[in-house]
Amino acid sequence: MLSLDAPLLIFTDLDGTLLDSHTYDWQPAAAWLARLREKNIPLILCSSKTAAEMLHIQKLLGLQGLPLIAENGAVVELDSRWPTHPDFPRQIAGASHAEISAVINKLRTRSSFKFTTFDDVDESTIAEWTGLTHAQASLTRLHEASVTLIWRDSDDRMADFTRQLNDLGLQFVQGARFWHVLDASAGKDQAANGLIDLYQRQWKRRPVTVGLGDGPNDAPLLEAMDYAVIVKGLSREGVILRPDSTVQVYRTQREGPEGWDEGMTHFFATP
Ligand SMILES: [Mg+2]
User: pTM for the full model?
Assistant: First the structure.
């Protein structure tokens, strides 16, 4: 059993993990959120969403001022108490959104790949795709270091597109609903490890880390943790961690925020 008095850092995915994948509700996790706040334990949101979108969600969850990992690790919002950090308030890993857009538009023109990016459509279309309101959908377009798209071509063509991206120092990452193009050096695990190091310097001791996620794209983040909660999800493949991973894993029976609550209670006993 873990103690809430340990130097803890908790990293969590949003959709399908802390937030219900359909309604975006998090009420089943509310008691734990209050407990973590009371104990001053940083809860770090980690997602493919933009920082603008995540800062809004962070505020709704009462987590403002804490770091967050956006755009699959390509963007890291630093703790608001670290204004002297040279990258304050945000770190960007590698290529910018504009640079990546230019590259993929060139590939699309040259090889006629079929895909639709968030930049190709208006807010109403994104609202339809995601079920978000117009105001929220406008925040999903404020990418700083990645491009989000819907792939509309064959698997073979996707392999070709991926190879061409890799040759140019970019990677193609599958999220829960969309695909994302980002710098090859970026990742949720790299972003989490960077934050763990920064807290270690502040705290003068190694943080104990707990991660929660529900999708295959959360695996690198969870492998970087000491303890992982795999929330039961909709994904057919599920979350498979590397066999040599030393993380202690708990798989929940319940989905979404109910599974989040179940996993936290498993490692820490009742909130
Ligand atoms: Mg998820």
Answer: 0.94
Orientation angle between helical segments 155-167 and 97-111, nearest 10 degrees: 130
What is the rounded average pLDDT of the residues 215-242?
Answer: 90
Q: Which entry of 13, 79, 226, 261 is annotated as an active-site residue?
A: 13
Q: pLDDT value at position 271?
A: 54
How many angstroms is it from 212 CA to the middle of ligand 1?
Answer: 9
The residue-averaged pLDDT of 142-165 equals: 97
Distance 270 CA to ligand 1 centre (A): 24
Rounded CA separation 54/31 (Å): 21
- pLDDT for residue 130 is more than 90: no
- Residues 181 and 172 sit within 8 Å (Cβ to Cβ): yes
pLDDT band for position 269 (50/70/90)? Answer: confident
Q: What is the 3-state secondary structure (H, E, C) of 136-178?
A: HHHHHCCCCCEEEEEECCCHHHHHHHHHHHHHCCEEEEECCCC
In order of 10, 94, 105, 199, 254, the CA distances from 4 in angstroms are: 11, 36, 48, 16, 23
> For tokens 């006629």, what's the residue?
112
- The rounded Å distance from CA 15 to ligand 1 centre is 4
Is residue 13 part of the annotated active site? The answer reads yes
Measured in Å, residue 55 CA sits from the centre of ligand 1 at 17
Cα separation, 251 vs 214, in Å, equals 9
Backbone angles phi, psi at 232, to 5 degrees: -55, 130
